[in-house]
Amino acid sequence: DSKKNISIKPYAPNIGAIITGIDLSKKISNSELKIIKDAFNNFLVIFFQKQQEISPENHIKLGKCFGDLHIHPAAPKMKNFPEIFEIHANKNSKIANGEFWHSDVSCDDEPPLGTMLQIHIAPACGGDTMFCDMYAAYEALSNPIKELIGGLTATHESEHLYRGRYSDRGMDDTGTIFPTAVHPVVRTHPETGRKALFVNRTFTTKINELSVDESNVILNLLFDQAEHINHQIRFNWSINDMAFWDNRCCMHRAIWDYWPEERKGRRVTIKGDRPK
Ligand code: SIN
Questions:
Q1: 104 is an active site residue
Q2: Which atom of ligand 1 lies closest to the CA of 85?
Q3: Helices (H), 115-211
Q4: Quick check: pTM over 0.90?
Q5: Whose CA is nearest to atom 6 of ligand 1?
Q6: For this structure, is 252 an active site residue?
Q7: Which one is catalytic: 59, 70, 72, 102?
Q8: Tens digit of pLDDT for each residue in 117-165?
Q9: Residue 69: which of 118, 120, 114, 119 has the closest Cα?
Q10: CA–centroid distance, residue 87 to ligand 1 (Å)
Q11: Which positions ≥6 away from 199 have C-beta within 8 Å?
């Protein structure tokens, strides 16, 4: 019975769990899939440890167990595998991916529901990824602020982030139109029915119904709220660990504290719905 040796250990009271006993390099069974989906909904980000390196083909197959795959609007595509986004920083890098708090590609009309990242080269220490719980961030707001933001929408832009970003990987983005989307400030998770804050410092540029000054104040309040230390965890990677996070209810931030060392991995993202 494949369930017998599977363990799910919470990482922090609100967010995160470590799953052992599922070999992601093999085809996962229906019962394993159910365990993973339930843990994903309960813990927001799940970490699979003691894994083998998963080939791009198998990573794509694994991602497709959870839905169709999303193709990144700006990042260079891996040769023959456009669904794979390579995460890589070394001594020549000028930037590293995901250095500021964000929910992946929230600038898309239908941002990806989840992301699966496996790290293959890790620095001797450092290179952690932080995650924060956007349900907890919402729930900890006072009622008057919840009422204020309940009916508001925000603009999520990407040109400021993506234009020229991948020129060091040979990308010419002349003429590229980068996505912009409008989403509710508070979204309801389609599977859990829980409300989560859905604004982030990387993509969210304004609250549409407010003046610029008001928008800046309220956005900063919400960013600070989301990034409060009580809502966060910090994951330290071992080689071949796989993280699977839910972009609808958590944000993440990759810490680039290991220059000039190298860190490398591959991720796939699973298509999501329009936030409601
Ligand atoms: C990202 O997907 O934002 C990068 C995450 C990481 O490298 O840990």
A1: yes
A2: 2
A3: 134-139, 143-150, 159-162
A4: yes
A5: 254
A6: yes
A7: 102
A8: 999 999 999 999 999 999 999 999 999 999 999 999 999 999 888 888 8
A9: 114
A10: 7
A11: 154, 185, 207, 219, 222, 223, 226
